[in-house]
Design brief:
The chain is α+β, with helices and mostly antiparallel strands. It has helices at about 15-25, 45-50, 60-65, 70-80, 85-90, 110-125, 185-195, 250-265, 285-295, 300-305, 310-320, 330-335, 390-410; strands spanning about 1-10, 30-35, 55, 65-70, 95-100, 105, 130, 135-140, 150-155, 155-170, 200-205, 210, 220-230, 235-245, 250, 270-275, 335-345, 350-355, 375, 385.
Length: about 425
C-alpha cells in the first residue's frame, strides 16, 4: 500500500473539482485531484448541448430567483466569486467568451471541450497539483482530529490501495445525473458516513412524459409560448419561453424549468398537467376576432390551423382534442393541455435536486459544520438551479469558497 500526503484532496474532476484545483494551484497547497474517469470534465462536455453555458450574467437579485431550494445559502459564495469573476477567470485562461440571449455566457468557439481543455491545461501546468485519473475514491476516513485518509483504487491496478493523507477534503463528486459520466452518488455515501444528512434526491431539468404522447411532435420547438404547471388542478408555476418536443417528451427551457416541481409532485402521487398558451401575446377576444375575420367557409380546419401553428404541430394539436372546431379554436390555442404521467430518470437529467443538507454546511466556506476540514462543492449539495448557466456558476462559486477557506486556514498554521 502506497501512502502519500497532501494539503487538500479534491474528489471529483468535474466542473466544481476542476475549478477548485485551478484556484488551489495559485497557492502553495499540495493538491491531489481524484477522478474516476480517464479524463476530467466528461460531464462538462455535455452541458449546453455540447456548447457549455458557463454562467449567466444576471445580477444577484435576478440570478437568485433561478436557484433552489435556498438561494440565500449561495449568496456569500456568489458575492465572493460571482458570474463576473467567472467570466474574468476564463478570459484570463485565454478562453474568449460570448454573451447570448438570456444573458448566457458561452465559449466563443461554441465548443464545451474548449472550457474543459483550458481548465485541464491550467491544472496540468501547476507543479503543486497531482491529477489522478482512472482513480476511484472508495472511502474518506477521519484518522485523527486533524487528518483524513482518502482510500483510492486505480482502475489499472485494483489490487493496490493508495492512501492519501490530507488536512482537507473537498467532495465535488456531482450528483446522480448522467450516470454514464461517472456521477453515481459517491459523494452522498461519503457524506452519510461522516454523519451528514442527505436530502432525498430526484432528477431535475429532465423531460416530462405526457400521457398518450404524440411522437410526431418530436423535433419541434415552439418559441414565445407560455406554460403553466398544474398540480392537482391548481397552477403552481407560470413560465414563458421556448418548449422543445423530443423523443422523450417535453424539454427545452420551459420543460426543464417546470420539471423540478413536476417531478416532486409526481413522486408524491399527485396529478400533474401542463397547460400551454400558444398565443400569449394576444387575448382570447383578439384571437377570436382574427379567426372570425380570416376563416372562409369550406376551408378545412387543418389548412386553417397552418396560419397559427407550425405544420408539424397541426395534426397532433387536432388529435389531442376530437371536439376541436373553428368556434372553440380561440380557447384551445390558449390552453393546449398535457397530462403528465412520468419523467425521464437520471440517465438524461441535467442536474440532481436534493443532496447534502445545507443546514450542515457553512454558507461562507462550504465546510462541514459536523466534520472540520471536510468541504462540499457543486451538485453534491442540496442546491440546484434552472437551465441557463446557473448550475455551473453554483459549482464555480462553491468551489471557490472552499478553496478560499482552506488557503486561509493554511496561512494561519
Amino acid at each position: 500500500m502506497c501512502i502519500m500526503e497532501y494539503d487538500v484532496v479534491i474528489i471529483g474532476g468535474g466542473a466544481a473539482g476542476m475549478m477548485a484545483a485551478a484556484l488551489a494551484s495559485e497557492s502553495s497547497l499540495r493538491v491531489a485531484l481524484i477522478e474516476k474517469n480517464s479524463q476530467c470534465g466528461r460531464k462538462l462536455l455535455l452541458t449546453g448541448k455540447g456548447r457549455c453555458n458557463i454562467t449567466n450574467t444576471r445580477p444577484w437579485d435576478e440570478f437568485k430567483e433561478h436557484v433552489h431550494p435556498d438561494s440565500g445559502f449561495l449568496r456569500p459564495a456568489f458575492m465572493a466569486f460571482s458570474n463576473a469573476d467567472t467570466v474574468a477567470f476564463f478570459r484570463k485562461l485565454g478562453l474568449p467568451v460570448t454573451e447570448e440571449r438570456g444573458m448566457r455566457i458561452f465559449p466563443s468557439s461554441g465548443k464545451s471541450s474548449d472550457v474543459r481543455d483550458v481548465l485541464v491545461s491550467r491544472i496540468s501546468a501547476a507543479t503543486n497539483v497531482d491529477i489522478r485519473c482512472d482513480s476511484e475514491a472508495v472511502s474518506v476516513l477521519r484518522s485523527s482530529s486533524s487528518h483524513f485518509v482518502v482510500e483510492v483504487l486505480h482502475s489499472g491496478d485494483r489490487m493496490n490501495m493508495l492512501e492519501l493523507v490530507t488536512d482537507s477534503v473537498i467532495v465535488a463528486t456531482g450528483g446522480l445525473s448522467y450516470p454514464a459520466t461517472g456521477s453515481t452518488g459517491d459523494g452522498y455515501r461519503f457524506a452519510r458516513e461522516m454523519g451528514h444528512t442527505v436530502v432525498d434526491t430526484s432528477p431535475s431539468l429532465t423531460a416530462l412524459v405526457p400521457t398518450r404522447y404524440n411522437f410526431a411532435l418530436a423535433g419541434l420547438t415552439l418559441r414565445n409560448v407560455s406554460l403553466q404547471l398544474l398540480v392537482d388542478g391548481g397552477v403552481v408555476q407560470d413560465e414563458f419561453g421556448e418548449l422543445t418536443f423530443t423523443n422523450d417528451g417535453l424539454e427545452g427551457a420551459l420543460g426543464f424549468r417546470v420539471s423540478r416541481r413536476a417531478v416532486k409532485a409526481l413522486d408524491e402521487g399527485k396529478k400533474v398537467e401542463v397547460l400551454m398558451d400558444l398565443k400569449p401575446a394576444v387575448t382570447r377576444a383578439e384571437l377570436k376576432a382574427r379567426i372570425e375575420r380570416e376563416y372562409r367557409p369550406g376551408l378545412s380546419l387543418q389548412r386553417f390551423l397552418e396560419k397559427f401553428l407550425p405544420v408539424q404541430a397541426v395534426r397532433p394539436f387536432m388529435d389531442s382534442d376530437p371536439s376541436l372546431t373553428v368556434q372553440n379554436l380561440p380557447v384551445r390555442l390558449k390552453s393546449w393541455k398535457f397530462l403528465i404521467k412520468g419523467y425521464v430518470d437520471y440517465r438524461r437529467a441535467v442536474v440532481t435536486a436534493g443532496g447534502v443538507s445545507l443546514r450542515e454546511v457553512s454558507r461562507k466556506t462550504m465546510e462541514s459544520k459536523l466534520v472540520p476540514g471536510l468541504y462540499f462543492a457543486g451538485e453534491v449539495l442540496d442546491l440546484d438551479a434552472d437551465t441557463g448557466g446557473y448550475n455551473l456558476q453554483i459549482a464555480f462559486s462553491t468551489a471557490a469558497a472552499a478553496v478560499r477557506s482552506i488557503v486561509s486556514r493554511s496561512i494561519l498554521r
